[in-house]
Input
Amino acid sequence: QVQLVESGGGLVQAGGSLRLSCAASGRTFSSYAMGWFRQAPGKEREFVAAISWGGGSTPYADSVKGRFTISRDNVKNTVHLQMSSLKPEDTAVYYCAASNFVIATTPGAYAYWGQGTQVSVSS
Output
């Protein structure tokens, strides 16, 4: 069992930055690939970024590439999503997720999810 808790969301103006954090507890954190997803009202949950267990693979959605950076600290059992140059279309609830197998860009590949943290970007 893995417990994930997101933090760091908030309200920012377009062009601003936020740093999301995901604290993991339970089974060995370093054994999991981690992902960030987001979901806006009325829309499906979509992939944002992911990172392999060793941090060597970090795929990003095209919509955030160059603006967002995912990182992990396996000692502190945390994953971060540094978001810069935020746009109103980035507004969503952001979820941290963990996979015990492969790194993936689809929600169904992730077995564990946090409760989400709201990110709101004003124009």
Summary: The two ends are 40 Å apart (CA to CA).
